[in-house]
Amino acid sequence: AMASTARGGEPSSLPAAVADAVLSKYASLPKNGKPQTHEYTSLAGFALTDDLTPDAPPVVVALGTGTKCLGADRRCPEGLALADSHAEVLARRALVLYMYDEIDRLVAAGRTRALENPRVSIFRPERSEKTIVGGAIARDRTRPWCSLRPGVRVHMYVSQSPCGDASIYRARTSDATNGSIANLRVNKRAKTAANLGAGSTGAKLLTGAPGGATDAEFGVGEQRPGAARLKPGRGAQTSCMSCSDKMCKWNALGLQGELLSSVVEFPVRISSVTVAAPEGGAEGGAEGG
């Protein structure tokens, strides 16, 4: 089942097209690094659509797999260790690298050619005080000098509900009454919630107390969304925020990150999110704003 939220009047077939594109791209990759038949991982990807080619399928530009993150005691102050290796975070890091490559293409093409041929890059030059001089960005830092080209939209696919708030959902009433909830895989944390027909998250509430997180929701019948949470895990407690919280930040501030914000005029936001939802999960479980 797919749960999706889209903006800008996207066609209803878009979630399936994005999912097919990401899954096909992943399947086309070599087997090296992929989980074996007895192993499991999470997959996330970003795909682009472009109004200049409305009949073309979404183009996958970034993929990531993973479910691990470092405990707080193993984080490297010098930034030499990757703290968060969840699929969504790795895919977004790959997307940022793709954006750098696209800006390089824009610089190499030059302002005039980029304006004449928009397909040179997903970015376009802004008519501002910044210019491209001799293949390099001018040193005038008064304003960013490029922006995402109109008509280019970024779509995200995730093979399971992102940890945190996005993993909290109600089961459909019809499923709750026919006993299918008993088929859900439950653990000690989620047992009560699953029996009551609700999806739950193992991500811990973020508090100001020592240690930073709490298991205050353990054993509750229903978890409530709208709270900041740390990533779940069986090992040492991590200080990484949940993927739901990070995705919320990305869409508020932009996927491009702080460094590229000095170059890209407007935040690059997600146009749609497609999630492979578990059977029995509420339809349309991903809410949009």
TrEMBL record:
It is an enzyme of class 3 (hydrolase). It catalyses: adenosine(37) in tRNA(Ala) + H2O + H(+) = inosine(37) in tRNA(Ala) + NH4(+). Keywords: Hydrolase, Metal-binding, tRNA processing, Zinc. GO terms for biological process: tRNA processing. One of its GO terms (molecular function) is metal ion binding. Its cofactor is 1D-myo-inositol hexakisphosphate. Belongs to the ADAT1 family. Specifically deaminates adenosine-37 to inosine in tRNA-Ala. This is tRNA-specific adenosine deaminase 1. It comes from Micromonas pusilla (Picoplanktonic green alga).
